[in-house]
Task: inverse folding
């Protein structure tokens, strides 16, 4: 059944519209803005729910001649991400009411969160590669703003920069992958690719681009989903307020990478795919699980845990059997549920107990009983203990890994081995987190307050959902899981079933091993924790952070040193280098392609034009011998006016008018500036004069050659003919130049005015910075 | 620069300059002119005022506001108005494109019609003029921003 186009467009557009009016709403509602945002999220959630069960494409044409359109595609996977984005969004906004009360910067916070929600929904439903990329980058940008929410904190700014650098960088790799994919398949439309996966694979293989595309997509997904070695931004991102961490960095934004993998799985699932993503997923799962054990802060632990579980999902999507797809499909839901709940719990702990340090928390079940119950359900689900929800998806992963190992043999047995190894650590840190609520209360802990209802209700709701999925997993499968599985499966998708294991299968043995080993080693948690931390101290290059910091700060230092040399404050140096660079490259290009200069000029010059140009040349020479600035500027204006007259004589009145006004304005600006300069030039060094003269001649030669070469071309269908014929009937204007500017090439003009606006903003920022004394 | 002659000429000339620039803007579609040219001309007019009378004149005498600290002026004063002007211009320009989309045409499609008005024989109304208005606003806003901020140096 086709989804309703209006519903799809509203789902994506509404959060953006709401975000644009949020500053206004904030003026009236102040602290209550969270309810406005929650209402918007609720509407979106209901709309997404109304699309459940429908599959299909919705198209809004944009540039039909280039087949560029805003395409949306609705299917199980998209709807699941949509649910997560809007549903958890509602909960986050409600939670923010309690958490962000009386905090600074709320207006920016709610606006950006709404923009983020819209972008995430855009990522979920976009079916056009370029649209997907745009929404992807929007999530990175809103994440940057939200992580750096506490703009005064140095750590926040560092974290925001790090996150942006890595996720946007990864996004660029993904864009290159998209472009290669589009140029090989000939379309940007994802739906076409989903309907003809075999053709896409064939074309990619024959172009030799299958592995590069998979690799590039992997980099993009790895950056967004914090996979090794691009995982370092996620723990730092915990500088953000906890609702942000819950929403972006556990339940939705980081899922974008996983979504990408799932979306492309039916198209690109091949042996190469499996190698790349299985390695990526399983290594991440294990390494970040180990890192989670070394964590000292509850949010840090949860951050690493998120990366680990995302690795699990990616590993699931990597395997080429049905179990793999089932793992990924189910775990997206499970992880979203229990991780969001746990992050909200972490927020409650931070808010009510005043500390986020693991060592300082304990025995809190008496003070926070409801929270403790939620933690038990979610935490044990995270560890993969039956009958909680995480267990089932982990079981599926074990089955998938085992089946692959049996099928391929040899080194493929590493897959299940690594999966088990990683799961042991997962269990360890999950138990540690749950134990925050049990055991003895440390001395330093003061009385812990009860959290307000708006902060308790969301995690409780999530906990209940997680418990329901744990108790009746088949229900979750029939409702959502099956449709998601169908979206990511390659070929025919059967009805899949989950449940508590009823017979001894290899996967059951693997799960049991994990649980037994985990429970046995748990008492030694502190030793393991200390041991790993000591190892990291001893060998700094183990930590990827070490490489990042060295690279970034090294580049900083290098650029500071370079800056003094390259940017020495003399305008003549900048100008010289620019001209040298451009001239050298252009002339080299002409020589390399062995262009021939035309022997005759394309137009015949009449006497008036020749006279005018002669005057211009005289003026140009006069500038070089002008004794003072004012004389020089005025002579320059003469040159400009001569060019304007040339335009008039050459029947280009619009150009002449433009030249005249710009010349006048430049003259006026020069005169404004001249106040500050000395009235007369000093004497000029002979060597410098000769050097500059040679450069000037070189630039002149380059420009002349370029003009001659470009006017040499004689295309068979000149555009000029087309414009002359259609300007009046189609554009309704007699001034062809103007019609070209605003109508035929209006998009270009939009780009130009954006650049002008940017120049204005840059000047403002630079001057304002200078006044505040921030520049050196 | 601020002689009596210059000031008087500015006083006489600037209104004419502004009027001519508006005229150029409106006639741009069929005769030489258009948003960009008109914008630069308007900016020149304002530049003349700045040279002849100084930057504070516009703000204090014409618009009747206070404030002379540079950073202040950037965030409040007339410079803030210039900033809002070019932001508005971008919005208008993009808006014309989006309106076309709302009527299910591709982005940035334009149309035109000819109507008969009382005294004039036939007047052409083109939607591209709205886009041109956006261009005009951006050019005026940015150039004036740059002029006034750099001129304060």
Result:
């Amino acid at each position: 059944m086709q989804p309703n186009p209006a519903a799809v467009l509203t789902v994506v557009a509404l959060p953006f519209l709401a975000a644009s009016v949020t500053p206004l709403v904030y003026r009236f509602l102040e602290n209550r803005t969270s309810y406005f945002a929650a209402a918007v999220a609720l509407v979106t959630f209901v709309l997404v729910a109304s699309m459940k069960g429908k599959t299909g494409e919705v198209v809004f044409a944009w540039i039909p001649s280039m087949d560029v359109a805003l395409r949306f595609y609705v299917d199980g996977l998209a709807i699941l991400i949509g649910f997560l984005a809007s549903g958890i969004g509602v909960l986050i906004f409600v939670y923010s009411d309690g958490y962000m009360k009386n905090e600074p910067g709320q207006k920016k916070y709610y606006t950006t969160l709404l923009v983020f929600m819209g972008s995430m929904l855009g990522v979920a439903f976009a079916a056009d590669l370029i649209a997907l990329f745009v929404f992807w980058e929007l999530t990175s940008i809103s994440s940057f703003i939200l992580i750096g929410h506490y703009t005064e904190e140095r750590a926040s700014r560092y974290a925001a920069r790090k996150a942006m650098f890595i996720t946007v960088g990864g996004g660029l790799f993904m864009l290159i992958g998209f472009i290669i994919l589009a140029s090989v398949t000939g379309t940007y439309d994802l739906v076409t690719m989903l309907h003809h996966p075999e053709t896409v694979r064939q074309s990619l293989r024959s172009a030799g681009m299958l592995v590069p595309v998979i690799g590039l997509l992997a980099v993009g997904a790895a950056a967004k989903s914090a996979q090794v070695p691009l995982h370092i931004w996620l723990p730092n991102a915990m500088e953000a307020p906890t609702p942000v961490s819950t929403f972006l960095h556990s339940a939705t934004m980081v899922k974008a990478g996983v979504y990408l993998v799932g979306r492309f799985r039916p198209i690109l699932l091949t042996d190469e795919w499996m190698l790349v993503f299985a390695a990526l997923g399983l290594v991440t799962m294990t390494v970040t699980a180990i890192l989670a054990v070394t964590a000292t802060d509850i949010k840090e632990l949860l951050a690493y845990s998120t990366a680990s579980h995302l690795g699990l999902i990616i590993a699931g999507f990597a395997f080429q059997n049905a179990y793999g797809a089932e793992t990924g499909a189910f775990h997206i839901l499970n992880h979203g549920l229990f991780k969001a709940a746990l992050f909200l719990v972490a927020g409650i702990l931070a808010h009510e107990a005043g500390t986020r340090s693991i060592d300082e928390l304990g025995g809190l079940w008496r003070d926070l009983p409801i929270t403790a119950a939620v933690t038990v359900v979610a935490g044990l689900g995270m560890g993969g203990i039956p009958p909680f929800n995480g267990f089932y998806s982990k079981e599926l992963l074990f089955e998938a890994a085992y089946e692959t190992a049996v099928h391929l043999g040899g080194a493929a047995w590493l897959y299940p081995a690594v999966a088990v190894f990683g799961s042991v650590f997962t269990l360890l840190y999950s138990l540690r987190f749950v134990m925050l609520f049990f055991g003895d209360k440390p001395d330093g802990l003061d009385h812990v307050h009860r959290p307000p209802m708006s902060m308790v209700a969301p995690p409780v709701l999530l906990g209940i959902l997680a418990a329901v999925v744990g108790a009746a997993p088949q229900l979750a499968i029939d409702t959502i899981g099956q449709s998601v599985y169908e979206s990511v499966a390659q070929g025919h998708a059967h009805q899949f079933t989950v449940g508590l294991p009823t017979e001894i299968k290899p996967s059951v043995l693997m799960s049991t091993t994990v649980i037994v080993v985990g429970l046995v080693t748990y008492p030694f948690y502190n030793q393991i924790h200390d041991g790993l931390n000591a190892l990291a101290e001893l060998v700094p290059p183990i930590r990827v952070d070490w490489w990042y910091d060295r690279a970034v700060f090294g580049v900083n230092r290098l650029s500071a040193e370079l800056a003094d040399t390259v940017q020495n404050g003399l305008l003549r140096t900048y100008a010289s280098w620019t001209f040298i660079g451009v001239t050298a490259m252009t002339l080299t290009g002409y020589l390399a392609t062995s262009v021939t200069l035309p022997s005759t000029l394309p137009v015949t010059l009449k006497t008036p034009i020749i006279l005018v140009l002669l005057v211009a040349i005289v003026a140009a020479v006069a500038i070089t011998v002008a004794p003072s600035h004012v004389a020089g500027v005025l002579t320059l204006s003469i040159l400009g006016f001569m060019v304007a007259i040339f335009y008039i004589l050459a029947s280009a009145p619009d150009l002449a008018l433009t030249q005249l006004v710009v010349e006048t304005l430049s003259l006026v600006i020069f005169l404004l500036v001249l106040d500050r300069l000395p009235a007369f030039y000093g004497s000029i060094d002979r060597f410098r004069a000769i050097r500059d003269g040679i450069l000037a001649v070189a630039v002149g030669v380059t420009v002349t050659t370029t003009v001659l070469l470009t006017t040499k071309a004689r295309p068979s269908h000149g555009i000029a003919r087309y414009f002359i014929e259609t300007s009046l009937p189609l554009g309704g204007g007699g001034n062809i130049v103007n019609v070209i500017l605003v109508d035929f090439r209006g998009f270009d003009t939009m780009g130009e005015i954006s650049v002008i606006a940017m120049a204005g903003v840059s000047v403002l920022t630079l001057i304002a910075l200078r006044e505040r004394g921030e520049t050196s | 620069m601020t002689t009596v002659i210059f000031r008087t000429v500015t006083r006489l000339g600037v209104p004419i300059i502004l009027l001519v620039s508006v005229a150029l803007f409106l006639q741009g579609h069929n005769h030489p002119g258009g948003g960009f040219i008109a914008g630069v001309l308007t900016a020149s007019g304002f530049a003349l005022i700045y040279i002849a009378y100084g930057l504070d004149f516009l703000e204090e005498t014409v618009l009747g506001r206070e404030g002379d600290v540079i950073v202040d002026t950037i965030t409040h004063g007339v410079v803030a108005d210039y900033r809002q002007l070019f932001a508005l211009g971008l919005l208008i320009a993009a808006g014309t494109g989006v309106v076309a989309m709302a009527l299910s045409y591709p982005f940035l499609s334009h149309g035109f019609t000819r109507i008969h008005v009382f005294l004039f024989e036939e007047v052409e109304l083109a939607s591209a003029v709205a886009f041109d208005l956006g261009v005009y606003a951006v050019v005026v806003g940015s150039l004036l921003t740059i002029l006034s901020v750099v001129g304060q140096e």
Summary: Chain A has a mean pLDDT of 84.
